[in-house]
Write a structure and sequence with these properties.
The chain is of the alpha+beta class. It has a single domain, classed as 3-Layer(aba) Sandwich (NADH Oxidase), CATH 3.40.109. 39% of the residues lie in helices and 16% in strands. It has a four-stranded antiparallel beta sheet with strand order 1-2-4-3, with helices on both faces. It starts with a helix and ends in an 8-residue tail after the last helix.
């Protein structure tokens, strides 16, 4: 078992995948990791639709990555696309947003999605978060109920290469403050 920081350091956005399916037990493990994420008022607003059938994936990609969303068309080559849906709760999501201005369900989906991608990395899979897609067409293709909202997608598969560019990030000293931003 690797250390958590090593896992986070290893995880990259992958946009090129091997042409082989992802085992469903690995995908289930990723959803299980996401299921265990915390959420506001423990409402667990997430739902996951895994699209791994080639024909279904092509239909989804043609709809979700068309028009102004065409730049994300590379994702259709991923062996699996995971659509993250949010089911909004009245107290935590609607009322909370009115009071604080914060969309708590988006934070919750982000935490769950990151649990998913970290489990995928730990399993040797590559992932890439996708926010640039047509949610209306995605909803229609997947027959998503009106009470659920497509929030993000994840492209998932076995990376095409083991080569990974160095992850460039700001230094810890550039982003960390104690007690006040102004010091």
């Amino acid at each position: 078992m690797q250390s958590f920081l090593k896992l986070v350091e290893k995880r990259r956005s992958v946009r090129r995948f091997q042409d082989k399916p992802v085992q469903r037990d690995l995908l289930r493990d990723c959803v299980e990791a996401a299921r265990l994420a915390p959420s506001a008022e423990n409402v667990e607003p997430w739902r996951f639709v895994i699209v791994d059938d080639p024909d279904a994936k092509a239909t989804l990609a043609n709809a979700a990555f068309s028009g102004v969303y065409r730049a994300t068309r590379w994702a259709e080559k991923a062996p699996a696309l995971v659509v993250l849906l949010a089911k909004k709760d009245i107290l935590a999501n609607r009322l909370g947003k009115q009071i604080t201005g914060i969309h708590y369900y988006l934070i919750d989906i982000g935490i769950a999605g990151e649990h998913f991608v970290l489990q995928a990395a730990d399993s040797g899979l590559g992932t890439c978060w996708i926010g640039w897609f047509d949610p209306r067409k995605t909803r229609k293709v997947l027959d998503v109920p009106a009470s659920w909202q497509p929030v993000a997608m994840l492209a998932v598969g076995h990376p095409a290469t083991d080569k990974q560019a160095e992850k460039k990030r700001r230094s810890l000293d550039d982003i960390l403050f104690f007690n006040s931003v102004r010091g």
